Amino acid sequence: MISAALADALDRWLVHSGAIEGKAGATLVAYRHDVSTFLTFMTLHHGGPQGFAAIAQIEVADMRAWMAQMRGTGLSSRSLARALSAVKGFYTWLAAREGFEPTAVLAARAPKFQRNLPRPLEVDDARRLMDRVEVQSNEPWVAARDLAVITLLYGSGLRISEALSLTGEDYPLPEVLRMTGKGGKQRMVPVLPIAAAAVKDYVRRTPYTPVAGAPLFRGVRGGALSPRIIQKMIEQVRLQLGLPASATPHALRHSFATHLLAAGGDLRSIQELLGHASLSTTQAYTAVDAAHLMQIYDRAHPRARSE
Fold first, then answer.
1. Phi, psi at residue 186, to the nearest 5°?
2. Alpha helices in the chain (DSSP H)
3. What is the separation of C-alpha 220 from the centre of its chain, rounded to a whole number of angstroms?
4. Residue pair 161/205 in contact by the 8 Å Cβ criterion
5. pLDDT tens for each residue of the chain, 307 residues long
6. Separation of first and last alpha carbons in the chain
7. Of 81, 94, 206, 217, which sits 20 to 30 A from 11 (CA to CA)?
8. What is the pTM of this model?
């Protein structure tokens, strides 16, 4: 439904976003869908294929019509905000190359939405959860495997996908892991002795020898361990311990950040450990009450120390 010229431009922008900006594959798939949907709407809205000259003439009213149509399909505010972000990114790139002014597109305001971040566990609940994981399975090596994964999530702030991406080449775990997170962003993550010991215990018990290029964490049949197995195990433990529904594998990553900050950790350092591009993301990720944040401020601020 869109012109060949615009389809080619979209392809080139996606290549640029992946190669230059390091956007992940799943992000690029979402970008293609969102921008293609937008361009298709504009084609129908204006009654015919849109070339560069026509697409450069999009007005505020056109943007409002597109957003209204998207909301009419039941699209959530979060998804519409993501789609608008993709469209703005494409237009910024295209305008720089075709020499037109994308003001009407860039001026469109994304709908507000509430970020639903998992609530971190209390320190005691995190300890209870890990103790329970250790005895959850009747198969000793599986119990050791699950504990090793959970220890990496809580002890190093890894995403579950990052923990399960480790291969035999990563064993024995070094003191510092180089992890590649979202958007290809790399970061250095210290490995606590307790995490290294948990992984060592798993390897000692597992029937599968670590092999270069093969997953370090294996399923019972020897294949790569599925994230769903860990998620389901946590669900079972959560119900057994009476923990809230927010107690998920990803909540352990939030717990890592929150507990580290509560213990006096530096927010900027925690940002680096989590691999966040923005400090504001790290601030939203943590859940330390305002009074405690002021205590940290009082301890850390130069003027506070001098008084």
1. -100, 150
2. 4-19, 25-45, 52-55, 60-72, 77-98, 103-106, 123-133, 140-156, 160-164, 193-205, 227-241, 249-262, 267-274, 279-285, 290-300, 302-306
3. 27
4. no
5. 678 888 899 999 999 988 877 787 888 899 999 999 999 898 888 776 567 777 788 888 999 999 999 988 988 888 898 999 999 999 999 999 888 888 889 988 887 765 555 577 888 888 899 899 999 999 999 999 999 999 998 888 888 999 999 999 999 999 888 888 776 778 888 888 999 999 999 999 999 999 999 999 999 999 999 999 999 999 999 999 999 888 888 888 878 777 766 666 666 666 666 665 555 555 555 555 444 545 544 554 444 444 4
6. 68
7. 81
8. 0.60
Structure tokens belonging to residue 19: 């190669």
Q: Which positions ≥6 away from 236 have C-beta within 8 Å? A: 136
Mind telling me the catalytic residues? 159, 182, 250, 253, 276, 285
Residues 189 and 273: their CA atoms lie apart, in Å, by: 6
Residues 147 and 126: their CA atoms lie apart, in Å, by 12
Closest residue by Cα to residue 141 from 195, 219, 212, 215: 219
Q: Which tokens is 302 given?
A: 């130069």
Q: CB under 8 Å to 134, separation ≥6 — which residues? A: 143, 147
**Token pair recorded at residue 214:** 């093969």
What φ, ψ does residue 177 adopt, rounded to 5°? Answer: -100, 140
Pair of tokens at residue 289:
């009450």
